[in-house]
Amino acid sequence: MKSWRDSLPTLQANTSGRTFSAETPGYDDALAVFNTCVRHRPAVVVTAAGPDDVREAVTFASRHGLRVAVLHTGHGPTVAAGDDTLMISTRNMVGVEIDAMRRVARVQAGLRFGQLVDVAAAFGLAPLAGSAPSVGVVGYTLAGGASPTLGRKFGWASDHVSAIDVVTSDGRLRRATARADADLFGALLGGKSNFGVVTAMEFALFPVEQIYAGSLFYAGEHTRSVLEAYRQFTVSAPDDISTAATILNFPPLPDLPPFMQGKKVVALRISFSGDPRTGRRLIDPLRRAAPRLLDTVAEIPYSAFATITQDPTEPAAAVEHFGLLRELTDGTVEAIAGLVESEAGSQMNIIDFRHLQGAFSRPSPVTNAVGGRDAAFAFFGLTVVPPDADVRDYQSCGSELVAALAPWLHPQAHPSFLGPADATERGTRRAYDAGVYAHLREVKAKYDPHNIFRVNHNVPPAVA
Prior knowledge:
alpha+beta, Uridine Diphospho-n-acetylenolpyruvylglucosamine Reductase, domain 3, Vanillyl-alcohol Oxidase, Chain A, domain 3, eight-stranded antiparallel sheet, five-stranded antiparallel sheet, 14 helices, about 25% helix, about 20% strand
């Protein structure tokens, strides 16, 4: 049999998209990612134009003993692909269809939330969007999808999926639903890229056009009082309001507002989907927690959701650590504030706590692998790696946050909140209940017995 190198012209001839090897001009551009901490160097890159290209690429990889990876579309943490891998990019697959009567969207695998939100808004509908327009819709949803805008009201994005088009390791394009290939459908939702390459997905939209949303900013010296007010607020917060508390600590960068340049700042992120007058009453205790540096909370169209967090838009190298909390107590607040005020905490640029509960805690109406539903909060610590620094010198940044929160950690991790550091058997196993993990391994053995989809948070196939 020909080597993969000798067969590459045939692959190119059989696909509509472009195919690259390391010697092909455009190889590096085809592999560009948002978080540049991870460097991909696969043997082959296929920029798929549609599902037929994905089928050809998977079949080619299987024939030549290559692993298969999918280049993430948006912000998601990733695992490095080496020279034994064929990387599929679906970023050119950006089709979207809206069925306004059924309130359902059908999206291709490369679509981002900025595109989807704008299209859905024309019908008075909204998806359970991620934090930024550049977040990839499909990858986010396969991981669970914790929407910071509407999540507490409607739950995990994965709970509202009705159909998934996926190419499995045999090169077959399947349409998985709760009735057809139901085991595959349920495993993909939470099991992510372990079972095939998703080419399209269908899910529910919601009749939301306006939200009362934005951020409240306070000086870092008020960290304790703001976090305590936030803790008390979340105890009785209605499901209509989704919130997060974020501690920001950036150098004096010129693009930042003056009050953030080289200074610690606490921000409360707010999204309320009810009457703005009710929203104002609800967050009044937060507004009174400390003197505000800036208050951007106002009634906005849902299509302006990016203004809530104002996430960075330029790629950069960053190290992240994630986890879940069982609760947020007075002791937790003290531990966080103590870390922020210490030298150990100063290297992290972002510490974020997202309130879960509400609809996040409800059982899914469709069988899926998204667990940890009794967790109260999700958190992460992010450290930006300076342009000329060695990423390896920063790998442990954020571990001090996990250590400080140890008394309140949930015993389980979550597929939506896994970083490259969690890409071990133990790290991946922690994201699932024991029974769910065993079932995922059985589904893996059925649809990917040779584990060609393993450049990820890998679930290995069960051994007969």
